[in-house]
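Researcher: We're reviewing a set of sequences before deciding which ones to prioritize for further study. For each one, I'd like a predicted 3D structure that I can look through quickly. This is Cytochrome C and Quinol oxidase polypeptide I. If possible, include the structure in token form so it fits the rest of the review sheet.
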Amino acid sequence: MKHQSYQSHILIAVIYFLVAALLGLLLRTYPIFAFDFNYRFVVHAHSHIALLGWVYVALTTLLHYCFVDKDASSRKYKRIFWCTQTTLVGMLVTFPFQGYALFSIIFSTLFLIVSYVYVYHFWKNINPKYKHSKGLQCAKAALIYMVISSLGPWALGAIMNSLGAQSIWYRLAIYFYLHFQYNGWMILALVGLFIYVWEQRGLEIPTKTFARFFISLNVGIVLTFFLSTLWTKPSFWFYVLAGLGAVSQFYAFAVLWGMLKRNIGKLSLSKVQFLLFRTVLVLIWIKIVLQLLTALPYFANMAANYLDLTIGYLHLTFLGIISIGLFLFMDYFSLFRISKKSYSWYFLGFLLTEALIFYRGMAAWLQWNIFNGHLEILALLTLLIPLGIAMMLIENRVPN
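Model: Here's the predicted structure for Cytochrome C and Quinol oxidase polypeptide I, in token form for your review sheet.
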């Protein structure tokens, strides 16, 4: 499969990102202009297109580009890719108008089935030269977490029919899905890509050190799910398990950083790539510190009671760590160019909206007065995110 096909697939992923960002902007302007649409339905469209249109399509394209034997798989991969697009467009035209209803559920279910086909296809067509790759080990584990995460949506139907949308199990099924999507599938896949780049540069990772990192990261991924259950005020042991998960993840990234820090210069990153890399690094440590804090009952209650803190955390992970990590690899593999100018607009929008969202959460917690016009300012700052993405797309017009 040609380099150019991967470029067009990444371009499609970024178009989904722009659509998700515009839907996010629409949601932010809803309380200002009182638009006549169903807010919850558009939230469903926004989150599905962001996670499955942007992140899933970009990550699966990058994994295929790096690890799969292109000659053996190109025709099948193209079929899987276009079947995925059909399900995504189906979700995009049904969710905003009907929320979770017959047609959107059909397209979401078909998407899950096609994602399983992708995992099977990836596994069957791994390039033999990577069979001992530590990056591949992370990528395979990431794909397993993606399949595990899908148990959440499958459970939702049964929960809706038997217990109803008001039961705690309904929210737990959604949190299960989200947790294993971003902590398991997405972040671990990005780690796999990073280690792949490392190995391509001929840099060795000691087997014992890698095993310590890999085991502690996976223990962390599984146990930090308990952070998503603390809003139910469970027994003391849930807090212990959640805390152990947060500590285990902290240790894993400390081990990874210990392996890499002396050799960063050998990766030959461009100025923009190094800027993206440093940003992701800082945001990962912020996320890890927040996880450690929310394992404590006081902060767990705080996170559960103030929605802005949860939204701020999710956006930190998706718009920050995962999206900027994807920008880094898209640029590194020359599949999609990220210029400093377009990225600066995107990052400014991300940073300022995060500051305002966390400020609103803190204001609700500490009972501060919120300044007048904060909704208008938040909507205006949100505009910078699709502006930055649109600039990226203009700079990367369809490959020749």
